[in-house]
Specification:
The complex is a heterodimer.
Chain A lengths: L1 E10 L3 E11 L4 E5 L6 H9 L6 E6 L2 E2 L8 H5 L2 E4 L11 H10 L5 H14 L15 H13 L5 E5 L7 H16 L3 E6 L2 H7 L2 E6 L2 E6 L9
Parallel strand pairs in A: 3-8, 3-9, 6-7, 7-8
Antiparallel strand pairs in A: 1-2, 1-4, 4-5, 9-10
Helix pairs in contact in A: 3-4, 3-5, 4-5, 5-6
Chain B lengths: L2 H16 L4 H38 L2 E5 L5 H13 L3 E7 L1 H12 L19 E6 L5 H9 L4 E5 L2 H43 L1 H9 L4 H39 L4 H9 L7 H28 L2
Antiparallel strand pairs in B: 1-3, 1-4, 2-3
The chains are: A alpha/beta, B alpha+beta.
Amino acid sequence: MIDFKHVTKVYEPKITALRDVSVHIDKGEFVFVLGHSGAGKSTFIKLMLREEKATKGEVVVNGYNLSKIKEKDIPYMRRTLGVVFQDFRLIPNLTAYENIAFAMRVTNIDEKEIKRRVPYILNLVGLAGKAGKLPAQLSGGEQQRVALARALVHNPDLVIADEPTGNIDPQLSIEIMELLKAINSTGTTVVVVTHEHDLARRYARRTIEMRGGVIVRDTAARGREGTV
Amino acid sequence: MKFSSFKYLLGQGWNNFSGKGNRLMSVASVGVVTSCLILVGVCASLALNVNSFVQYLGAQNEVVIYVADTASDAEVAEMNAQLTADEDIASFVYVSKEQALEEQMGYMGQYASLLSGYQGANNPLPASFRVHLKDLTRLEPASMRFSAMGGVDYVSTPTELAGVLIALKNTTYYAGMAILLILFMVSMVVISNTIRLTVFARRREIGIMKYVGATNGFIQFPFVVEGLIIGTVSAFITFALLSGGYIYLYNYITTQAAGFIAMLSLCMIPYKDIWYIMLAGFFGFGWFIGGVGSALSMRKYLKV
């Protein structure tokens, strides 16, 4: 599913963001990637999305070798994964429905399929009644759910959530995490990148901790979750 | 690409051009591109007409190959055959000694009888071939070839005038090309900057499109459509304005009775022979700078 083999990423002039990182994440896993600012988390995501290319080593995501992938194949690789950002990245002048439909339209999916799939996804994230609302009319948690719905439209094998609870209050964070858990329970791999140690501790899932561009800890799921 | 996607992208392109908040910028870029196209059109029309004028003047000047009195009929026939086969020649006519004398007598009008004693064996005027070349730049090599033919006395060539005409033609050509190139680059920068502003305003959307797996072609399409619309509208306005101006000028020149302007009317290209060149030129130019200008302005934002 995700395979980093001795990956190093150096940004010019000579800033090493990742140093000889090797990690494997299996299909269906729920993984926290934990670390403070500057730990290398963002670079880790950028490499998975092929926004950046590894300086050394090999990155394989959903069967695509991102060190060798051709430019023209990158969009197709990205359709196999969904991304959720801390700042939601919704288009402000489009409704919740249109924000999700937009992600389908730009990948050449026909209107009939959009009309079928968007209400289903909105219902899945509990926003069936808010389809016509603009992002500004939604709470932070609801906006993040729209972003999550958008990430799910292509039925991805992998969902990457970059600080998904960073901009919302604790109660709404729980809702988002529960949704991610539900998505994971259907067999989708979920990678949550966060600086919140408490969040990772609470959910007791596999945790990869990064510091200074290296993995300093990789602990397996503990088998039980803490109370929230 | 699916038809619904194509329709969606065209709609997006139209929205980029005419949507609220984009209109002022679109009007500004249509204005600048139209101005450039008008200048291009005026330069190109001028160059085409100068070329036509030069060709007209060139056609009025002929190379005269004087045949030696000693030349045999066989040599004259051979000259005729060589001139017929010569690819630089547009047309030629043989003027015999008798015709030359008759012509001369015609020029003299009421004094023609003065030449009556020069008929027959006393005729001092040589026979000649009067040649019009296709292209005056070929004057020198052609006249050298003519001089080398057997039976030729000498060849009279309008070298000086040809030099002036060729220089005029070349100057028009190179100046026209230079102006065209400059205007082309200016239009390109203007249209590219306009599209860049739209792209900048929509960079967030473009970023999202990249993350959800839109191809570069799909992302670029609406912006290229926007560029093409700017190019089309500009080309249409320019075509309408310059057509009106050209027809007015042509009518004015062709109705002048005398003088230099009246002479211009003989070589000014009629509108019916130039409108399709203008049409193709403006739309071709408009579409090219619109399409390429917008594609170029997007490159930076596609590297996500």
